[in-house]
Design brief:
1 helix, 169 residues
């Protein structure tokens, strides 16, 4: 009788351990598919995405949100192995015409959010080998004046997924 009770208790413990292991495995495999935030100093980088393109298009743009919980900082540069060149850009309107300009840096005000988004600041990806197919993921390294360097994971998505229509560069 004691042996049967021991086996029953062991089976329950094994089932519970198996359930816990399954939940941990699911949590670890599901987490990477969700947007991953990265942190550099007081700056949290989130919602990193790039515009998906057809294969012949060799240029795209990456967008993200910089949430600064500290003092003023400045995004100095970005780099990605998927592109021959990366550039920080802004969109400005001159005489009623939107124009894209390369900038030397993007100010990140103290205790505020800075959005890199279509029609505003963004990171140009120039010289893509095969465009950016929807769902493609790639690392993007950001360099800040004070917060240092951090690498974020970027996913290529349709512009419509973010409520923005087509925007030609």
């Amino acid at each position: 009788m004691q042996y049967a009770s021991f086996l029953h208790g062991t089976a329950n413990t094994a089932r519970r351990s198996g359930a816990v292991a399954l939940l941990l495995t699911l949590a670890l495999t599901v987490a990477p598919t969700q947007a991953q935030d990265a942190k550099a100093g007081a700056v949290t980088i989130s919602h990193a995405w790039a515009r998906a393109t057809p294969a012949p298009v060799r240029t795209s743009a990456a967008y993200l949100t910089l949430d600064n919980k500290g003092g003023a900082d400045r995004l100095l540069s970005a780099s990605a192995d998927v592109a021959k060149e990366t550039q920080l850009h802004s969109m400005i309107t001159e005489a009623g015409v939107m124009k894209m300009r390369e900038v030397k840096g993007i100010d990140v005000a103290a205790n505020s959010k800075t959005e890199l988004k279509p029609g505003g600041f963004h990171i140009m990806l120039v010289g893509l080998a095969d465009g950016l197919k929807e769902g493609t993921k790639f690392p993007l390294k950001l360099k800040f004046e004070k917060a240092g360097e951090v690498t974020v994971q970027v996913t290529a998505e349709k512009p419509d997924a973010h409520g923005h229509g087509e925007h030609k560069h």
